[in-house]
């Protein structure tokens, strides 16, 4: 798949069965206005079924995402109707990312703040660079944080650490983020993505479905059916020395 540009701030390409979604707004540290959140959701919906994994990254050196664009949010002081438009755009973008049927990995380099943290939280795995910093500053601005994003944060780090991040509005470095479970690894996400992409696409989708919805009764049959996967048959044949 050729690279696609959505709104000038979001770019998507497929490389070796990996969908790479890049944030590209260097003049604002990847702070995204309402239209960019809408473009992000639209971009995610175009990921082809051939993709085995998604890498979410920044194309701007030294920064992941500064969150929502404050210049855009300023109009919400007086424009009451625009508040819902923004909330729904943000909710849709993060929700589509969280519900993708393939493994998703966020590579966080540099600053990751506000809605940028929400984006990272929507991924299955978060890999941070040593110089990454995380913060959720809405309390400092006198506003809240989306309900779904608070829930994802609490599931990741526990209620107490979520409360600490939300109530203090302070920032933490990558080492502290790793300690509390906000990130899963410090290093290069491309290594993780490469390991994932080498695996079977059908198995990856099944395993993600099991992780996300373990109470789905159809999954027991799906597990049994997976033994009919040609890749499994080929692996067994190699083990037996038949191939």
Model description:
The structure is a single chain. The protein has 243 residues and is of the alpha/beta class. It folds into 2 domains: 4-195, 2-enoyl-CoA Hydratase, Chain A, domain 1; 213-240, no CATH class. It has helices spanning 34-44, 70-73, 80-98, 115-121, 138-141, 147-157, 159-168, 174-180, 189-197, 201-212, 218-225, 230-240; strands at residues 4-6, 10-15, 18-23, 53-58, 63-65, 104-108, 111-113, 125-128, 133-135, 171-173, 185-186. It starts with a strand and ends with a helix. The model has no long low-confidence stretch (mean pLDDT 95).
Structural category: alpha/beta
> Treating each run of at least 4 consecutive H or I residues as one helix, how many helices?
12
Q: What would you call the shape?
A: elongated
Q: Fill in the CATH topology of the largest domain.
A: 2-enoyl-CoA Hydratase, Chain A, domain 1
Task: Catalogue the unreliable spans.
Answer: none
Cα(first) to Cα(last) distance is 33 Å
For the report, how would you describe the main beta sheet? 7 strands, mixed
With strands numbered from the N-terminus, the spatial order across the biggest sheet is 1-2-3-4-6-8-11
The string of secondary-structure elements, in order, is EEEHEEHHEEHEEHHHEHEHHHH
